[in-house]
Structure formats: structure tokens, C-alpha cells
Amino acid sequence: MPKIRRLSPNWHGGANNIGVTGGAFDSYLLLRGLRTLSPRMEVAQRNAQAIVDYLKTQPLVKKLYHPSLPENQGHEIAARQQKVLVRC
User: Fold this and answer.
1) Higher per-residue pLDDT: 43 or 5
2) Are 49 and 68 in contact (CB under 8 A)?
3) Into which EC class is this enzyme placed (predicted)?
4) Residues 6+ apart with CB under 8 A from 86
5) CA-CA-CA-CA torsion for 70, 76, 80, 82, nearest 10 degrees?
6) pLDDT for 30-87, tens place per residue?
7) For residue 72, what pLDDT is reported?
8) Which one, of 38, 49, 48, lies nearest residue 88 by Cα?
9) Sorting pLDDT into bands at 50, 70 and 90, what band is 88?
10) What is the pLDDT of residue 79?
11) Do 85 and 78 contact (CB within 8 A), yes or no?
């Protein structure tokens, strides 16, 4: 920041004046979203598994592509990369 102040002393704070920085409410929404991210992801994983379980029982479904299924090509990669893989 000191280098920027030397190069353009009149510009310091200019970004805030023209509105390119986030406002207080935007920051609040971002923080709230980060705080609730983990519970929302857990619910999304449970919902995805419920859909996979349902589709496995449907006779019209010929093939499922989901990383939680051991027969899926990306299962090994997903198992290594994901902290909690939807149950297999």
C-alpha cells in the first residue's frame, strides 16, 4: 500500500468512492454464507445420496453416473479428494 500512496497520493481511497469495494451488507451476506456453508453442503450430500438410492431402484434407469458409486469411473479420485464421500 505505501508504494501505491507514493505513486498516486490523490487516488488513495478512490476505489471506495467509485463503488468498486463491497458494502457492509455485502460483507455480512458473504460472512453468513461462509458460516452456513458446511451445514448446507451436508444437506446437499444427503439429498444427493437419497436421489441416487431412489434412482438405483428404478427399472427405467439403465446407468447412474455418481462419484459415490464404486462402479463409477471417478469413484477412486472422489474418495481421495473428498473429506466425506457420500456412502457407497
Assistant:
1) 43
2) yes
3) transferase
4) 45, 48, 49, 52, 66, 67, 68
5) -50
6) 999 999 999 998 899 889 989 999 999 999 999 999 888 888 888 888 888 877 665 5
7) 87
8) 49
9) very low
10) 84
11) yes
pTM value?
0.61
DSSP string, 30-81: HHHHHHTHHHHHHHHHHHHHHHHHHHHT-TT------TTSTTSTTHHHHHHH
Cell numbers for 65: 453416473
User: Nine-digit cell at 29?
Assistant: 451476506
State how far the Cα of 80 lies from the Cα of 4, in Å rounded to an integer: 44
The grid coordinates of residue 6 equal 507514493
The C-alpha cell of 10 is what?
490523490
- Cell triple for residue 36? 452456513
CA distance 30 to 35: 9
- Grid cell, residue 1, equals 500500500
Record the cell numbers describing residue 47, joined without a space.
439429498
